[in-house]
From TrEMBL:
Cellular component terms (Gene Ontology): plasma membrane
Assigned protein family: Belongs to the binding-protein-dependent transport system permease family.
The protein's name: Binding-protein-dependent transport systems inner membrane component
Keywords assigned by UniProt, alphabetized: Membrane, Transmembrane, Transmembrane helix, Transport
BP GO terms, sorted: transmembrane transport
Pfam families: BPD_transp_1
InterPro entries reported in the protein's UniProt record: MetI-like, MetI-like_sf
Transmembrane region(s): 12-32, 105-130, 151-171, 191-212, 257-278, 298-321
Domain ABC transmembrane type-1: 103-314
PANTHER family registered for this protein in UniProt: OLIGOPEPTIDE TRANSPORT SYSTEM PERMEASE PROTEIN
Membrane-topology annotation of the record: Multi-pass membrane protein
Length: 330
């Protein structure tokens, strides 16, 4: 009963959050200064009739003849039908197609790098916390130092050393010029080679936070009575580490990991700019500069829903690993 009540409360909370986010996503562009239609016409010079301008406003859902409430209702209807509008800066291409073209690059690169960073950092943090006071502690200040270095500096240094200097990796883009995206093994290897350097910089830049967080939680958990009792019973050290200490110490990490997964869709904007990578973050910056409101709305919607889904999965994992959560919130 407590479990059902817990999940019902969380479902109601996330449904309300999703409604609020989508509502803000609808109203925010309409309160911003500037006219996206006029900006579009300025980029496409020529004689445009008033009728054509009115047609564009209707096409982009900016028809001021309709009451705002009716526009809001129409927006929900279009969203449920999968129609996020047309991109002003991408030749009136459907927003869903534009986002779908950029999304795999961001998820493939930033997603894999985030999972690697979390896994390696959590494992190292648990081992360092378990053997506190050993030589392994030196990894904490080293990894923390790299986390404090501005990412664009780290990216530029990596390009200067490993791309320009040693020539081990390409300096930019997701694949070579003249290549056509496909599932051909040669193209896949080319994508991996182009993505290795930015992925490594993401892992190195974020590794310190995971190590430090897990190490501190391990030190706190090791002072708990149930760990002391487990050790006094003579249980193997590996079992005490994995079943008692690490299992409880990783719980706060899961919530942070869920947030990191949610923001994967937003991409690492600085990384995409430094390495000229065709991801969602760079697409959002270009849409903002072009006042492409439909594309901005679509990107914000995808990012928001992804963050919510990631948090839902984190809540489920948290409840499975720690039954006390269900009992407390229920």
């Amino acid at each position: 009963m407590n479990t059902l009540r817990f999940f019902a409360r969380r479902a109601a909370f996330y449904l309300f959050t999703a409604w609020a986010a989508i509502t803000i996503n609808f109203f925010l562009p309409r309160f911003m200064k500037g006219d996206p239609i006029q900006a579009y016409l300025a980029r496409h010079r020529g004689q445009v009739t008033p009728e054509a301008i009115d047609s564009l406003r209707i096409l982009f859902g900016l028809n001021t003849d309709k009451p705002l409430l009716q526009q809001y209702v129409d927006y929900w209807g279009l969203m449920f039908s999968g129609d996020l509008g047309r991109s002003l800066s991408r030749g009136l291409a459907p927003v869903t197609d534009v986002i779908a073209a950029a999304l795999p690059w961001t998820i493939g690169l930033v997603g894999i790098a985030t999972i690697l960073s979390f896994s390696i950092g959590t494992l190292l943090g648990s081992l360092i916390g378990w053997s506190r006071g050993s030589r392994a502690d030196v990894l904490v200040p080293i990894s923390t130092f790299f986390s404090t270095v501005p990412y664009f500096w780290m990216g530029l240094i990596a390009i200067a050393v490993f791309a320009s200097g040693l020539g081990w990796f390409p300096a930019s883009h997701a694949y070579g010029r003249g290549s056509t995206p496909s599932w051909d093994p040669a193209f896949i290897l080319e994508v991996i080679k182009h993505g290795t350097l930015p992925a490594l910089t993401i892992v190195i830049a974020s590794l310190g936070g995971w190590i430090l967080g897990m190490r501190n939680m391990m030190i706190t958990i090791l002072d708990e009575d149930y760990v002391t009792v487990a050790q006094a019973k003579g249980l193997p050290a590996r079992r005490v580490l994995t079943r008692y200490a690490a299992r409880n110490a990783v719980l706060p990490q899961i919530q942070s990991f869920a947030l990191a997964l949610g923001f994967i869709v937003g991409g690492t904007l600085v990384m995409e700019l430094v390495f000229s990578y065709p991801g969602v973050g760079k697409l959002l910056l270009e849409a903002t500069g072009a006042k492409d409101y439909p594309l901005m709305q679509g990107l914000f919607l995808i990012i928001t829903l992804t963050v919510l889904v990631a948090n839902i999965l984190a809540d489920v994992a948290y409840a499975v690993l720690d039954p006390r959560t269900r009992q407390t919130e229920a």
